[in-house]
Design brief:
heterodimer, A: 216 residues, alpha+beta, B: mainly alpha, globular
Chain lengths: 216, 177
């Protein structure tokens, strides 16, 4: 009887250990980190105690609704938050890479944030289009309306360096196992989606500011 | 009380034939099919648990949030707890450890998933991906409902007749696998 019980306990413990080992072997160990981006893709004081990095896709509806939340966070903690924008366009979104390139080129012309806002505001107009030329026309029109020169924009968009900047962010996102957008990092701690930012993310910012230091 | 009945009682159980459980009825292939069902359910749990464990818990928490069933404070703890539970259930069913208990646990989990999925349909919540297999396999809500219902039936079959090939239970009982 005693032997049977001990065998049962041993087998159960063995299975639990196997489960933990299996999970440990597949689990990504992604240490907290602070993504960086060119200056035109950042907003807020460079020495702000909190860095809020966002990986987003211009064609993702969740990212569009998160724009207001990010602005609300910036307004909640004026001068305390530095926003860093990172591209994470998904292949399933036909025009997301093109939109990212438009924003990238608008950024080089000093018009990243107005273009960013317009691309999201008009996402429903271009996201569902089937025709690539028509989609590009609307994307470029948004950048033009944001103050970009169309000729310079076209030249920039055909420049492989613009695509490379976007691909570099995608590679970084893949390396960090960012499979959902929007994904935020508050001083290195990950939050996925608008709700997590609004609840746990804001709590973390408050904690960080209360402690008065960085914890990357 | 008559004297005859009192005598019967005084004789006690030693006189009565020991109660034997009625022999299990059913076709000869049923135990094999039930064991196969147990192995299949175990494999599904192992795969889905590992897929979920492989993704950042915050991403799985965001999927759980999409069901709008639990308060935000419960999303991350559930995202952390569910993958190990699924992996352990899967391994136990595959190895045949306490097969009845883990078949019942599997059935309970499938029932919970079915209730959660059906509630999104009833409340009109759009759920592009059920998150059943993490980011590995994308299933729509109706597809996931169909799969979970089928697996619930298989869990019941495994619970009733899935003792065959339970080598870990055999080792526990007899000391040899």
């Amino acid at each position: 009887m005693g032997t049977r019980t001990s065998r049962r306990v041993l087998a159960g413990a063995g299975l639990a250990l196997c489960s933990l080992l299996l999970i440990g072997s597949v689990k990504a160990v992604v240490p907290p980190y602070a993504p960086e981006a060119p200056a035109y893709r950042t907003r807020g004081p460079a020495d702000a105690p909190v860095t809020l990095a966002e990986f987003t896709d211009f064609q993702c509806p969740g990212c569009r609704t998160a724009v207001a939340e990010v602005k609300a966070v910036e307004q909640m903690f004026p001068g305390k938050v530095r926003l860093v924008f990172k591209h994470r366009p998904f292949k399933a979104h036909s025009w997301a890479r093109e939109a990212a390139r438009v924003a990238e080129c608008a950024g080089k012309a000093g018009r990243f944030w107005p273009t960013h806002d317009l691309l999201y505001a008009r996402q429903e107009d271009w996201a569902e289009l089937r025709d690539a030329a028509e989609a590009r026309k609307l994307l470029v029109a948004a950048a033009r309306e944001a103050g970009c020169d169309e000729t310079a924009l076209s030249v920039c968009m055909d420049d492989p360096a613009s695509a490379a900047a976007v691909e570099s962010d995608i590679a970084e996102a893949d390396g960090r196992r960012i499979n959902a957008t929007p994904t935020f990092f508050v001083n290195g701690k990950r939050f996925v989606g608008q709700l997590q930012l609004k609840t746990h993310g804001v709590n973390r910012i408050e904690d960080l500011l209360r402690k008065g230091g960085r914890s990357r | 009380m008559s004297a005859k009945r009192a005598d019967k009682r005084a004789d006690g159980p030693a006189q009565k034939p020991a109660a034997q459980p009625a022999p299990e009825q059913g076709p000869a292939w049923l135990p094999t099919a039930a064991a196969a069902a147990r192995l299949l359910v175990g494999a599904v749990f192992l795969a889905s648990g590992l897929e979920k464990a492989a993704m950042p818990p915050e991403e799985f928490a965001a999927i759980i949030q999409g069901y709008w069933l639990l308060p935000p404070s419960a999303h991350l703890p559930l995202a952390l707890a569910l993958p190990p539970i699924e992996v352990l259930t899967g391994l136990a069913l595959l190895a045949g450890y306490n097969y009845r208990g883990f078949s019942a646990a599997a059935g309970g989990l499938f029932l919970a998933f079915i209730v959660a999925l059906a509630s999104t349909l009833l409340r009109g919540i759009p759920l592009p991906d059920c998150g059943c297999f993490g980011r590995g396999v994308h299933l729509s809500v109706p597809q996931a409902l169909g799969l979970d219902s089928a697996l619930l039936c298989l869990s019941y079959l495994a619970y009733r007749k899935g003792a065959a090939l339970s080598w870990l239970d055999r080792w526990v009982e007899k000391g040899t696998p």
